[in-house]
Batch of 2 targets.
Target 1
Amino acid sequence: MDFRRGLLLRPAVIAGALLAANVALAAGLVASALRPRPVVVVPAARSEQELFPGAVPEAALREFALRYVLHFDNFTPATLDASADVIRRMISGRSWAGAAAALEKRRQVAVEGKMSSQVIPIGARVDGMKVTVEAKRRTFISDKLSREADVRYEFTLERQPPTDPNPFGLAVISQEIHEP
């Protein structure tokens, strides 16, 4: 008789344990659903925005393009090599071969002619992954102002994995400079 009683008691214990586990899981789910959602506060943010996976915010595209312009066209013969190292990390690998040749040619002209450049960004517009930066560029030969012009830089950017040297996760695919 005792053997039968043990068999009948076992399913009731198992059912009770499963019921208790389901109640505990349901309570945990309710607590998780009622907990406030985390809010990420970005120190430099000026307005509320939502980020979606795979999307690049316009502010990040604009900031990347402005930094690129400042590294690209603010130079002296002494700072060209350091600027080229920074720019190298900001240019897409598939575009680097053409860019490297142009940067080396510019370096030779700047060193031989004692040429310096200063660029002052005025504004930037974003259209998808294309960014246009309006700027004023001043070119100096030795220590004399040689030329001052309004310049428009147009960039096409692509996403890439972020790294320590390039935390934006963006790279320049193509670049055009328009001067009057």
Target 2
Amino acid sequence: MRSSLSRIKGVGFILWHARHEFYHVLLGVAWAWIMREALGELNVKLILLAMIGSVFPDIDHFFYFFTYGKGDKYTRDVKKFLKDRQWRALTVFIEKGHKYNTDLSYHNFYFVALLFFIATVCFFLDQEAWVAFIGAMVIHYLFDIVDDFWTLGYMNPNWKRWGNGRRKAS
């Protein structure tokens, strides 16, 4: 009994420190509500697409971990926590450290502007599903920019450049 209770406490701890992702999901729901106001329609498909679109940009972190950033110290630390099954420590490490991971390829103004343009085109072409998905991605990135100011006190430098920020060897 005591063991299962401590596991439940551990899950609560992890959920609390991973709340940033839940904020993204809630913003996806809010985006679906905004679409309902603009289009006069709301259905489960649009809500689900907006929720998925609101967390989809974080796939960039996985690309970073398993491809172009796999040798980075941050990645090595994350993998060590995973290997050692230190879930609580991993959660706190990611919560505190993910804002300093400035080499993500798609977390920048240029990509956000491109997505905004695509979402606008889809809106005028009456492609509600794409507007739900891509618009939620734009909301995700905008929230991350505001969150940078909130948590760091300044905007993360990755927003001002294109690509992953790493210099290629000539």
